[in-house]
Automatic annotation (TrEMBL):
Classification of source organism: Eukaryota, Sar, Stramenopiles, Ochrophyta, Bacillariophyta
Aminomethyltransferase C-terminal domain sequence ranges: 55-139
Chain segments annotated as transmembrane: none
Organism: Phaeodactylum tricornutum
Gene Ontology CC terms, in alphabetical order: mitochondrion
Protein name: Aminomethyltransferase C-terminal domain-containing protein
Entry superkingdom: Eukaryota
Amino acid sequence: EKGYRDYGHDMDNTDRLLDCGLGFTCDFEKEGGFIGQKHVLAQKDAAKERGGLLKRIVNVLVLDPAPLLHHGEILWKDGRRISDIRAASYGHTVGGAVGLSMLTRDIPVKKDWLDGSDWEVEVGSRKHPCRLSIRPMYDPASVRVKDA
């Protein structure tokens, strides 16, 4: 529900920091920089020139509360196989199965593409409508975490 990343499960050493939505963890003002800083800055500049990232980890919410996700389920958009679910659980506060998926395209992965048409996740042999978001499905501003 919160979209927290689990290294080795949701992401690994083949995924780039910004693609995983973890750019906020970088201190670009740190004296002496950090290992990989020039690569992160180059990716950031390239994304700015293109109008966004070509690869993004996104949150998935199955709209029907009955199906359960585990991982490996196929994500479909407009009848085309797009990606798979990397990690999943049941989101009790949002009322359905939730998961994370890494999307890759030739043009930037943006909110309007995620909102723009029919997404489905295949559980068993049935496809179920789902909603995708770059931001977490639950408490996207982390207000509850900060107030705790």
